[in-house]
Amino acid sequence: MTNPQVALGPRTREQRLADTLAMLRTPARDAWVATASVAADGTAAPYLVPLSLAWIDDRVVLALDATSRTGRSLLASGTARLSLGGTRDVVMIDAVLERSVRVVEAPEELAEGYAAQADWDPRPGGEHDLYLVLRPRRVQAWREVDELAGRVLMRDGAWL
Amino acid sequence: MTNPQVALGPRTREQRLADTLAMLRTPARDAWVATASVAADGTAAPYLVPLSLAWIDDRVVLALDATSRTGRSLLASGTARLSLGGTRDVVMIDAVLERSVRVVEAPEELAEGYAAQADWDPRPGGEHDLYLVLRPRRVQAWREVDELAGRVLMRDGAWL
Description:
- The structure is a homodimer.
- In chain A, strands 1, 2, 3, 4, 5, 6, 7, 8 and 9 form a 9-stranded antiparallel β-sheet that branches.
- Chain A is α+β, with helices and mostly antiparallel strands.
- Chain A contains 3 helices and 9 strands, in the order αββββαββαβββ.
């Protein structure tokens, strides 16, 4: 008997891309969002939180308070590294901040797109609430060790 | 009919601590490990990878290559932020590097402890392979919004 759930060797790039996009489009999908800041003594300080994510026009969209630690770090450094999926079905995204949009001023398309995928709607939004639109620069996807080769799906912002 | 799997309101602190320790002791448990470095231009750069973890004598033990990005960042900054569990059954650990031990020189107790819990054994280990022993400073555990209050289980290195 064969079981279609059992992975038979590494996935093709096409399959990994399809799986990755499916993951990015999943309703109520959370990501682990890693950011970094420079402490007063000059050392680097990591931060990490789970956040709801929406995938809109090939961009990762987060909604958060500009004064939160993740908000401040992302606005200052302009970079984040996100993971989706489990530690053995990994999608990693290195992204740069493309733009930030105040929730109270957001275009309908962005706000509706976020609310449609995330499991909450930040509107009407307070003074500090932002949508952060992140542009992926590098995307990697792998499950087990046999998928480490070929794990890069996007490089320098372009799908391979 | 009642379903014992359905959570009825927030867990007590005792239950969260028990669940957290159970998670930390789970064989073949991976953590998301966030570290940070300071880039050449002075901005902070985040990094994030899944790594196998062992919980030995109230310490998180990782095994990695000192020249990997996570290894370099952790050795330079001395701090990491780790998550275990899913994005809706979260355990967050802010930890400091207590010591690093070369795999080739590691005491039996450390190496056996790591191998017993992780799903691999870094021994005999190459020139750059290290065990990194991390001391938790802050531990938080929460599932849904109703558990955000009371999520701190350890503060300044002491269980509450």
